[in-house]
Every structure is written in C-alpha cells, then in structure tokens.
Specification:
Length: 193
C-alpha cells in the first residue's frame, strides 16, 4: 500500500493517523521515505508504486511554502500522476485514491481530477479514519473509527520513545516509519474495548 503524503511536522498527526488506519485495516504502508539510496530516485518511486496494489495520495499540503521564493509542493500530485499512469497503462488492477482536507480544493488545484471521488478528512486524525473506512469499504477487515482512535492514542504515546530508540530527529525517518508500523500493528492486534 503506497502512501503518498508530505513529511513535515505540521502533518505529523495525520501521518500517524494514516499509519494507524492502514495497519488497522491489515494493510502494509509503504512510503518514499523508505527508499534507500542508490539509483535514480524517480525509478525507485516508480518501482515502489508498482509493487503496491493500492496507493493513497494526500493532497492537503499542496500549498505555497513560507520560505522565499514561495513555491508550491508538487511531489504529492506528481506521484499521484505516476500512480494514475501506472494504473492506466500498466496495471489496471492498481487502485488509487485521493485524500484532501477541504472538499473544494482538489478540484480547483487539479481540475483533471474532475469526476474522481476525493476523500475529505477535514485535516483531523478522526477524519482520516472516517475516510479510510469509506475508501476501504470492501476490505475484508473493517475496524471502526473508535478502534482506530484507541490505536492512534497508543501510537502517539509511544512516538517519543520510538524516535529516541532510532536515534532520529523526527518521525519522518525510514527507521522510525518502520518502527511505527510495527508498533501500530501490535496495537491493532490487541483486543480493543
């Protein structure tokens, strides 16, 4: 399951929510921050997308940077375009979904998505859980939003120790991502009241 999201502190709560939600659905999140060095990065991203049955693309942070010169963030829509092309020309069974925090913005910033259902999460972890439930309504395992919220709180509590154990500076490092998935899967496997 390819997860296309921004990697910055302001997105951390949604980053954790996606990890929790996907693990609760018994999916294995994969992301570009896992890609080791060597070889051309674009080729490695294409290989990662190609190795996944699903790809989820969050466009909620496609905005101008505050640092001069003000520049939009194009990585997320670019990787969405790669996934759409992969599905269209190479692997018809690949399923891609678009997530946003505001209902109108994806249509305005990327009008080529007209006719595509966009999952609007309102910029909250609960919204991410709700929209994952909508996007994955046909999945075999169906966790509830309340169950995911319990797992999220557990992962949020463990985040500082995961970062410290990895000797990392933030949650957006390859080792931390891998460790967060292990923790989230462990929490998801526990009986939830």
């Amino acid at each position: 399951m390819f997860l296309n999201i921004p990697y910055d502190q302001a997105f951390e709560s949604l980053y954790l929510a996606y990890i929790v939600g996907l693990c609760a659905f018994r999916l294995a999140p994969r992301a570009t921050l896992q890609i080791p060095g060597g070889g051309r990065r674009l080729d490695r991203i294409l290989d990662l997308i190609g190795s996944c049955r699903y790809s989820f693309h969050d466009l909620s942070r496609v905005e101008l940077s505050l640092k001069r010169p003000a520049t939009p963030r194009f990585n997320m829509p670019f990787e969405l375009g790669l996934a759409v092309a992969w599905q269209r020309f190479k692997e018809p069974s690949h399923t891609w979904c678009v997530f946003e925090s505001r209902s109108w913005r994806a249509g305005k910033s990327l009008s080529d998505l007209s006719g595509t259902d966009v999952y609007v999460h309102d910029g909250t972890p609960t919204g991410v859980f709700r929209e994952l439930c909508n996007a994955l309504v046909l999945a075999d395992h169906q966790p509830t939003v309340a169950q995911m919220a319990v797992i999220y709180r557990g992962l949020r509590r463990r985040l500082p120790s995961v970062i410290k154990s990895a000797g990392a500076k933030s949650a957006f490092e390859a080792r931390v991502f891998a460790d967060l998935i292990v923790v989230a899967k462990g929490l998801a496997a526990q009986p939830v009241p």
